[in-house]
């Protein structure tokens, strides 16, 4: 059973300043699902330095922006000034959580669930365990540390962490990655917001689809990182166009320097690149600019809100989530829920069944991806099948289902702690 009071600790979160990747989506939606289920959730994250330190979020959720005094000196995003923020969390958060949340919970005869996310919080979890023991309240604490990725594993003192907290992971793939470090983990998958099952907004989706002008259009969203198989996407587009199909690729990456490598590869393959930039909040402006873009590769340099992003997924012919190393693949599930066709990699996307609900690339070879994209162009019924099966799959991965699994895993963690 999940305790009534829950604390989630994550560098990423719902603010644009902290809305960086899948972790932000995970903790925001997990907090919302828990709050909607009647839990009292405290979401600690490295939030906007100019926002209120504490404010209500979704029903049942309190947003707590930590380390704002450091964030004011590092305005780029939550990871800007990361070493100082990590140190601040290790020093200031454990006593606050124990004294302000755990001690009162024990006095009420309740338990407190604390879930720490990613390597930045490993020492925080260790300090929470130590502080709770010093205060004599460890028996009222369920403490978990969750791995969403392998980043920073080499910086973690695993023997100490595994004594302090139950280690969890978002997929079997991550479970096996942890096993390489001698760590046993419980698998608790990510989920998606049940509201996504309604699909993308039909008006936005049609407008975006019409903006493509009848050209096969692929979308790829993610950090510019070699793990995301960007070069495979570029090479596949070049091969598809060489086969006589006037396809194009809509790209939305980050500010990582690897983006220069990606666009250099595009130029090497004879693919012109244009930038799509706008600062407004009206999705219709984005659609108009998209309709005017006429290069094989369109680099979107703008923030796209959730509804616009989901409409882009649904309106495209294919969304390329073809990572070579993907711990879970939350984007793949979001594409399925939005009503799109997704290409996944072959690591943590355990929900993806090749040519049943998704296309799955086993390699990073552009020719493999091009072969599957050409097959889709030749068989429209396959795309319809993938969309329908994908929607059915997404329905099995809502947070409601995930929380049922989380409750059972907590019962096990508490049982072995006695």
Describe the structure.
Helices cover 44% and strands 16% of the residues. It is an alpha/beta fold and 418 residues long. The protein has two domains: 207 residues, 3-Layer(aba) Sandwich (Rossmann fold), CATH 3.40.50.2000; 203 residues, Glycogen Phosphorylase B (Rossmann fold, 3-Layer(aba) Sandwich), CATH 3.40.50.2000. 48% of the residues are buried. The longest helix has 26 residues. The mean pLDDT is 96. Helix 7 crosses helix 11 and helix 8 packs across helix 13. Strand 7, helix 6 and strand 8 form a beta-alpha-beta unit. The protein is elongated. The strands form two sheets. It has an eight-stranded mixed β-sheet, sandwiched between helices.
The CATH superfamily of the largest domain turns out to be Glycogen Phosphorylase B
Number of helices: 15
Whole-number tally of structural domains: 2
Please tell me what the overall shape is: elongated
User: How many beta strands in the DSSP annotation?
Assistant: 15
Rg estimate, integer Å: 22 Å
CATH fold annotation of the largest domain: Rossmann fold
Structural class: alpha/beta
Cα(first) to Cα(last) distance is 15 Å
N-to-C SSE string, H for helix and E for strand: EHEEEHHEHEHEHEHEHEHEHEHEHEEHHH
The CATH architecture classification of the largest domain is 3-Layer(aba) Sandwich
Q: Poorly predicted ranges (pLDDT <50, ≥5 residues)?
A: none
Q: Strand order, main sheet: write it out.
A: 3-4-2-1-5-6-7-8
Quaternary status:
single chain
| CATH top level label of the largest domain | Alpha Beta
Strand content: 15-25%
Q: Residue share in helices?
A: 40-55%
The whole-number mean of residue pLDDT values reads 96
Largest sheet: 8 strands, mixed
């Amino acid at each position: 059973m999940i305790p009534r009071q829950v604390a989630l600790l994550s560098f990423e979160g719902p603010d644009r300043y902290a809305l960086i990747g899948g972790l932000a989506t995970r903790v925001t939606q997990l907090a919302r699902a828990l709050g909607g289920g009647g839990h009292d959730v405290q979401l600690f994250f490295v939030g906007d330095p100019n926002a209120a330190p504490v404010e209500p979020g979704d029903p049942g959720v309190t947003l707590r922006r930590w380390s704002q005094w450091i964030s004011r000196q590092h305005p780029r995003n939550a990871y800007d000034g990361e070493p100082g923020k990590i140190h601040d969390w290790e020093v200031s958060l454990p006593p606050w959580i124990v004294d302000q949340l755990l001690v009162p919970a024990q006095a009420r005869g309740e338990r407190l669930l604390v879930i720490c996310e990613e390597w930045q919080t490993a020492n925080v979890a260790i300090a929470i365990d130590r502080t709770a023991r010093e205060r004599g309240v460890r028996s009222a604490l369920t403490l978990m540390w969750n791995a969403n990725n392998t980043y920073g594993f080499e910086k973690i003192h695993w023997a100490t962490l595994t004594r302090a907290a139950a280690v969890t992971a978002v997929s079997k793939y991550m479970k096996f990655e942890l096993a390489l470090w001698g760590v046993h983990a419980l698998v608790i998958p990510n989920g998606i917001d049940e509201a996504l099952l309604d699909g993308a907004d039909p008006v936005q989706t049609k407008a975006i689809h019409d903006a493509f002008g009848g050209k096969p259009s692929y979308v790829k969203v993610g950090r510019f990182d070699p793990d995301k198989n960007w070069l495979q996407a570029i090479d596949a587009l070049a091969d598809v166009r060489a086969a006589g199909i006037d396809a194009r690729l809509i790209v939305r990456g980050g500010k990582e320097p690897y983006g220069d490598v990606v666009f250099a590869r595009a130029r090497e393959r004879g693919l012109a690149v244009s930038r799509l930039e706008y600062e407004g909040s009206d999705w219709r402006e984005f659609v108009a600019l998209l309709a005017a873009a006429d290069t094989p590769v369109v680099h979107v340099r703008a923030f796209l809100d959730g509804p616009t992003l989901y409409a882009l997924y649904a309106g495209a012919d294919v969304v390329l989530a073809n990572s070579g190393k993907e711990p879970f693949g939350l984007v793949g599930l979001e594409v399925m829920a939005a009503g799109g066709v997704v290409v996944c990699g072959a690591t943590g996307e355990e929900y993806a069944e090749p040519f049943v609900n998704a296309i799955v690339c086993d390699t990073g070879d552009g020719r493999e991806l091009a072969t599957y994209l050409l097959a889709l162009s030749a068989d429209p019924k396959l795309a319809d099948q993938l969309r329908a099966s994908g929607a059915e799959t997404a329905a099995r991965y809502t947070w409601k289902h995930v929380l049922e699994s989380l409750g059972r895993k907590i019962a096990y963690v508490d049982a072995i702690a006695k």
